[in-house]
Amino acid sequence: MSTYKEVKRVTTHTLLEMKQRGEKISMLTAYDYSMATIVDQAGMDVILVGDSASNVMAGHETTLPITLDQMIYHAASVIRAVKRSLVVVDLPFGTYQGDSKEALRSAIRIMKEAEAHTVKLEGGREVIESVNRILSAGIPVMGHLGLTPQSIYKFGTYTVRAREEEEAKTLLEDAKLLEEAGCYALVLEKVPAGLAKQVAESINIPVIGIGAGGDVDGQVLVMHDMLGITKEFSPRFLRRYNNLFDEIKGSFERYIKDVKSQDFPNKSEQYK
């Protein structure tokens, strides 16, 4: 019987093979060693070290404030835990837009200092020069279209993208452009399910959705959201698999009570 240590690593090629045989791809965020260990051992295909760390780990309102150094710290912590999953790391805001040389420097730092497997960046034609330059260095790139949270102040809202025909047409063209450039996969965030299906059927690389319906090649969620650690964020696409906020808070409350009442530590929990 195969042991965990013998598990074959997931690669970018693995994801392509999964799409070709119709096997759905599971993807989840992680930001630290302990949680990444659990995610990896559960059998997750892809771990995303997302710039959502800016929200769930640092408490910022948007993903914009997180720095490249901070992303490298989180990514390195995750990489040290992982034996199976493909680890994708977000290039944070300001490290690739408008300057393809800066984009390459940022991607190289993530690959060298965090020992990441691949990088992800948001946008289509407006960042294609950066995509091309990163790919030219042999660094795998995952694209991200639809709702791109780093552009939140341009959009002004987190509502569904590409409902209008013109925006939908642009998104489809951008997906094909990213595939042609050499991206190995694409995230589609908060777009109509019908459009997401059309994109997934129009390109050969895997399309991983978040709020993009079930007809794409895989799904991604933010760990803290699906575990119920965060309570205030409840979009339609989110399924909560636990209610850890209340469970963990309850554990803390019991610990406080036991300390105050001198129930903890008891005689069996101390040394002679």
Concise account of the structure shown:
This protein has 272 residues and is α/β, with parallel strands linked by helices. Helix content is 41%, strand content 13%.
Structural notes for this entry:
By secondary structure, the protein is α/β, with parallel strands linked by helices. It folds into two domains: 4-241, TIM Barrel, CATH 3.20.20; 244-272, no CATH class. Helices cover 41% and strands 13% of the residues. The chain is built from eleven helices and eight strands. The protein has an eight-stranded parallel β-barrel with strand order 1-2-3-4-5-6-7-8, surrounded by seven helices. Helix 2 (33-42) links the parallel strand 1 (25-29) and strand 2. The radius of gyration is 20 Å and the shape is globular. It starts with 11 loop residues before the first helix and ends in a 12-residue tail after the last helix. The mean pLDDT is 94.
Number of strands: 8
**Assigned CATH class of the largest domain:** Alpha Beta
* Tally of discrete structural domains: 2
Assigned CATH architecture of the largest domain: Alpha-Beta Barrel
Low-confidence stretches: none
Distance between the termini: 44 Å
The CATH topology annotation of the largest domain reads as TIM Barrel
List the helices and strands and how they pair.
Layout: H1 12-21, E1 25-29, H2 33-42, E2 46-49, H3 53-56, H4 68-79, E3 86-90, H5 100-113, E4 118-120, H6 128-136, E5 141-146, H7 152-155, H8 165-181, E6 185-189, H9 193-202, E7 207-210, E8 218-221, H10 223-226, H11 244-260
Parallel strand pairs: 1-2, 1-8, 2-3, 3-4, 4-5, 5-6, 6-7, 7-8
